[in-house]
Amino acid sequence: MSQKRIAAAGLVYTIDLRALVQNWTELASRSRPAECAAVVKANAYGIGIEHAVPALWQAGCRSFFVALPEEGQRAREAAPGAAIYVLNGYLPDWGGYFRDFRLRPVLSSLASIEAWAEHFAGEPSGVQVDTGMNRLGLSLREARELARRTELVKKAGIELLVSHFVISEEPAHPLNAAQIALFREIRAELPQLRATLANSAGIHLGPDYHFDLVRAGIALYGAEFSPHWPPLETVVSARARLLQIRHAAAGETVGYGATRRLEEDTRIAILSAGYADGYHRLTGSLSGRPGAFVLIRGQPAPLLGRVSMDLIAADVTRIAGAMEGDWAELFGAALPIDTAAHFAGTIGYEFLTQLSTRAERVYINDAVNP
Ligand SMILES: *Cc1c(COP(=O)(O)O)cnc(C)c1O
């Protein structure tokens, strides 16, 4: 990334690959002796599969999970030796991807297991069982039927038993115990398979929940995975350029829809970022409802009015020295991405996966391509 492009950018993401690697190393140590796989679906939660996967591979990560075959292709090109699982399963017209990029489907119905066995006899796969989410996966009854059909299990190459938590971020919730009990029951019927249940928060429920492999997603990327645990190292930060300072008088309004009327004379900073940069429109403020804030010169500048497509207004009345050309932090080490997301009524997962393609990206501490 050239300095010229960064200087001319409205919004810049800085993505710290050493922090990503440190987070994986930390989660791997919290999970041992289970294997710690990385979930890199949705472009590695927005940060870029092509950067995240080689960094994680070099750190020692050997198994990756994506949602879609196309993501699997990108992960394969980044890590030729990895085991890559496709969580959304297998449909017969996806076969080319699975063959060309040696992907392993996580199969979720008896019909798809039969189809995989027919077209990919003996090639490795996983099977997902539903233990309470009512999303993808075999029911207990279907899992029992599968367990009886030992020839099919073999022919479909099934080697991994997968299930997924509903509410692992709340350790005391009774569904966790119910899910693990059902998972153990199904596992007892298919004891030859490796087993995986835990996502990021599930890792923190304790060693009973780790089984043979854990699937770390959000915690790798430094966002909040449970209100009961601190997030790991910050991986992504976003900063926007301050384009202009203006003054408005008490009683005037700011932005589209005139939704925010000023109670006092105000110094307004106009920032070069907006909802087209993935900074959610709902972070803005209305009269009587405060919005998110950004940091300018390290101090909080509350948003004024609606977020526009390309611009954001923030109150810098009390920030001495704020001036054109400054960079405002939208989220990062000093302002967690989840704090910004909560103002929009959403979660860090959504903010991360909505990182925009318009913004410039700067990858730092890249040990693979320094
Ligand atoms: C997304 C996903 C994960 C990762 O969950 P995090 O909460 O981000 O750690 C693990 N397993 C499955 C099946 C998923 O869909």
Topology:
Blueprint (H helix, E strand, L loop, with lengths): L2 H5 L3 E6 H15 L3 E5 L1 H5 L3 H11 L3 E4 L2 H10 L4 E4 L8 H6 L3 E4 L2 H10 L5 E4 L11 H9 L1 H6 L2 E5 L11 H16 L4 E3 L3 H4 L9 E4 L19 E13 L4 E2 L5 E2 L4 E6 L21 E4 L2 E4 L9 E4 L11 E5 L5 H7 L4 H6 L6 E5 L6
Parallel strand pairs: 1-18, 2-3, 2-9, 3-4, 4-5, 5-6, 6-7, 7-8
Antiparallel strand pairs: 1-10, 10-13, 10-17, 11-12, 13-16, 14-15, 14-17
Helix pairs in contact: 2-4, 4-5
Verbal overview:
Helix content is 30%, strand content 23%. The chain has 370 residues and is of the alpha/beta class. Strands 1, 10, 13, 14, 15, 16, 17 and 18 form an eight-stranded mixed β-sheet that branches. The chain has an eight-stranded parallel β-sheet with strand order 8-7-6-5-4-3-2-9. β4, α6 (95-100) and β5 (104-107) form a beta-alpha-beta unit. The radius of gyration is 23 Å and the shape is elongated. Residues 39, 41, 87, 164, 199-201, 215-219, 225 line the site of pyridoxal-5'-phosphate.
Task: Assign a percent range to the helix content.
Answer: 25-40%
The counted number of beta strands is 18
Radius of gyration: 23 Å
Strand content: 15-25%
Number of helical segments with 4 or more residues: 13
SSE-based structural type: alpha/beta
The average pLDDT score comes to 96
Low-pLDDT stretches are none
The major beta sheet can be summarized as: 8 strands, mixed
